[in-house]
């Protein structure tokens, strides 16, 4: 294979391989292709990040971990994620937690504190304030309204 790469008719193959390598390195470093009007995460990277978020709703989700899932640095990741979803990673995480909390609140066997812990909040009051801000009702009021 080494000999075929250095033959005169395979120089183009070597150039294409080198150009592909440079594009990958630059993309992982946060540089974007100037010919693309909108830069975002590719579908596989976005799915890996979403799966990571949904799999870790009950704990701390660090920006560095999400960026690693996408193969980017933290700041390029934030820009790419926002270009792909229209939301920052923090906004996406908060919305995912609230959606999961709404599902869990329908289980009457779980206390509001249990729901809070399962969606990554350490205190009942912080969860209640975040839930009220996102949904417009306290978790208890939401549960009562939905279970009628």
Short note summarizing the structure:
This protein is an all-alpha fold.
Walk me through the structure:
With 148 residues, the protein is mostly helical. Among the domains are: 1-31, no CATH class; 92-147, Arc Repressor Mutant, subunit A. Helix content is 68%, strand content 0%. The chain has nine helices and no strands. It has helices at 2-6, 11-28, 43-55, 63-70, 74-85, 89-105, 112-118, 124-135, 139-147. Helix 4 crosses helix 5 (74-85).
Query: What is the β-strand count?
Result: 0
Per the CATH scheme, the topology name of the domain at 92-147 is Arc Repressor Mutant, subunit A
- Summing up helix and strand content along with how strands pair, one would put the structural category as mainly alpha
Mass-distribution shape: elongated
SSE pattern, N- to C-terminal: HHHHHHHHH
Q: What percentage of amino acids are in beta strands?
A: under 5%
Tally of alpha and pi helices: 9
Distance between the termini: 71 Å
CATH H-level superfamily title of the domain at 92-147: Homeodomain-like
Into which percent range does the helicity of residues fall? 55-70%
Radius of gyration: 22 Å
Spans where pLDDT lies below 50 across 5 or more residues: 4-13
The CATH architecture of the domain at 92-147 can be given as Orthogonal Bundle
Largest sheet: none
Average pLDDT metric: 84
CATH C-level of the domain at 92-147: Mainly Alpha
């Amino acid at each position: 294979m080494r000999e075929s790469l250095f033959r005169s008719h395979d120089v183009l193959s070597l150039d294409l391989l080198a150009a592909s390598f440079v594009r990958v390195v630059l993309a992982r470093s946060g540089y974007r292709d100037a010919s693309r009007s909108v830069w975002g995460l590719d579908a596989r990277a976005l799915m890996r990040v979403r799966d990571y978020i949904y799999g870790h709703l009950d704990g701390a989700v660090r920006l560095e971990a999400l960026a690693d899932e996408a193969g980017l640095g933290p700041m390029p990741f934030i820009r790419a994620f926002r270009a792909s979803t229209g939301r920052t990673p923090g906004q996406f995480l908060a919305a995912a937690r609230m959606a999961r909390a709404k599902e869990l609140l329908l289980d009457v066997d779980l206390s509001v504190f249990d729901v809070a812990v399962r969606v990554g909040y350490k205190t009942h009051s912080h969860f209640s304030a975040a839930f009220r801000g996102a949904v417009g009702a306290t978790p208890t009021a939401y549960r009562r309204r939905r279970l009628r």
